[in-house]
Amino acid sequence: MARYRFSEFVLSPRRRVLIRGGREQPLIPRYFDLLVFLVERRHEAVHRRDIFDRVWSDVVVSDSALSQAIRTIRRTLGDDSREPRFIRTVSRHGYRFVFDGVVEEEDEPAPPAAEPVPPPAVPAAAATAPPDIAAAEDFFEPLLQRLTRIPTSAADEEDQREAAELLHALGTGETLARLGERPRHAFARAVLRDTRWDAPTAGGVPVLDAPSPAAVAWHLTALRLRRAKRIAAARWAGAALGGGVAGALGGAAGGLILAAVPTSTASPAVAPVLAVIGAACGAAGGAGVGAGLSVAEAAFRSRRTIALVAGGAAGGGVVGLAAQWLSRWSLAALVGVHLDVGGGIEGLVIGGAAGAGYAVSTAFAEGGLAAPRGWRRITTAVVVGLACAAATLALALSGRALVGGTVHLIAQASQGSQALLTPLGRLVGEPDFGPVSAAILGLGEGLLFGLGLAFGLTRRPN
Predict the structure, then answer these.
(1) pLDDT given at position 462
(2) Which of 405, 404, 413, 419 is nearest to 270 (CA)?
(3) Reduced to 3 states, what is the DSSP secondary structure of residue 222?
(4) pLDDT tens for residues 13-53?
(5) Range 422-429 average pLDDT
(6) Of 58, 267, 367, 410, which sits most exposed with the smallest number of CB within 10 A?
(7) Prediction pTM value
(8) 391/396 Cα distance (integer angstroms)
(9) How far is residue 422's CA from residue 368's CA, in Å, rounded to a whole number?
């Protein structure tokens, strides 16, 4: 495996270190991978899409995440975007490593370890300043003023993130102490909290123990959702599509099985009807749970598992309650049938189970919204499907009707309906559609929904 020398730097992919003058320069892992990728392909301009596929192959991130990474690498290298020595922006394309004197050499298996660089106490500009000037100048205050002003453009927001990273380099604790409760301190704390993931030397930025914790949490959530809103919206739509397809397949299969049972009076025409019902229910459930998971994953980087369970449960519960109210009102108003149709509790339980399965199976995701590929994506779908199946099985055993059970209840209350599921109960030895057949049907519904939801949610956008 090769290592690379350029200017006063040594880049060792084997040891995963960047060394400058015998001192290791801290970079978070994805930023290190990006620098290696650009150096490896230094003879060409690397497209942004190729960078995302290589560096963020298992997650989906916004374009601003790449801009943040490039800005951090430039600062580590002492580069200037206006007159770049190392990394040049190629307009409407991507980036290119432009230093002309890169030396590629074999990396020793076990060279002497580089001395770790301590967290810088002042910005690089202060390192070369005369002692009396460096001591007299306050490097915190100008950065704090940049951080607390009201941004008017995307460029201002990126400038504030850069100021936050520099403040982390100066010292997170001292920054928070100097920030105090000055105007817009809650917003500034939110930016500092968000950028600590991109600053290797950053300290902790508490939210609950901060002044105005609710305001800090609100600004932090809004900031992260604003940066990921396009991705979150696409994932919400994908989850709705996946849930709808799964529901349609389940409804059609159930209708065909029902029509094929010798004792059934149902015709094959019941299959497309049940497919439409299944698609509508699956799409609505997928939209609710998918929206909850997308928002939670975009807004929370710490306590991710709790956030995903809560987000999935909230999304599923809201959609379930809406479906419950709409079903009861429609049946009573249109056909005079009064049934105790459920939905709210079922959506809450299934959504929470989906969130738990998704959190466990995508624990590898860091810095973005999970987008596994290949076998990892299949594994994620299977885990989410099994989690949803366990939830629907528990609901069915507790006597709560799911989609199939609700269809059976409506058919029982109607005259001459072909959608009675009694023949399915007789297939498993029950005189009617009973607890065993309801449990089997619920298990299948949950498994299909979880599979469709996960495949739709983890679809990587073009």
Answers:
(1) 67
(2) 419
(3) helix
(4) 999 999 998 899 999 999 999 999 999 999 999 999 999 99
(5) 85
(6) 267
(7) 0.85
(8) 9
(9) 47
Q: Give me the mean pLDDT over the 81-99 stretch.
A: 93
**Can you point out the beta strands (E) in 48-196?**
59-60, 87-90, 94-97, 103-106, 115-116
Instruction: Give bridge partners of residue 115 from the DSSP assignment.
Output: 23
Say how far apart CA 219 and CA 193 lie, in whole Å.
10
Q: Is 19 exposed, middle or buried (0-12, 13-18, 19+ CB in 10 A)?
A: buried
State both tokens at 206.
Answer: 């508490």
The 10 Å Cβ neighbour count of residue 369 is 22
Count how many Cα atoms sit within 13 Å of the Cα of residue 332 in the half-sphere of its side chain: 10
Give me the residue spans of the domains in the chain.
2-116, 124-211, 229-457
CATH architecture of 2-116: Orthogonal Bundle (1.10)
pLDDT number for residue 116: 53
* 116 bridge partner residues: 24
The secondary structure element, H or E, covering residue 129 is none
Q: Buried (b) or exposed (e) across 315-346, using 16+ Cβ within 10 A?
A: bbbbbbbebbeebbeebeeeeebeeebbbbbb
308, two tokens: 């995903």
DSSP 370-402: E---HHHHHHHHHHHHHHHHHHHHHHHHTT---
Query: The tokens 């001459």 sit on which residue?
Result: 416
User: Which comes out higher in pLDDT, residue 240 or 199?
Assistant: 240
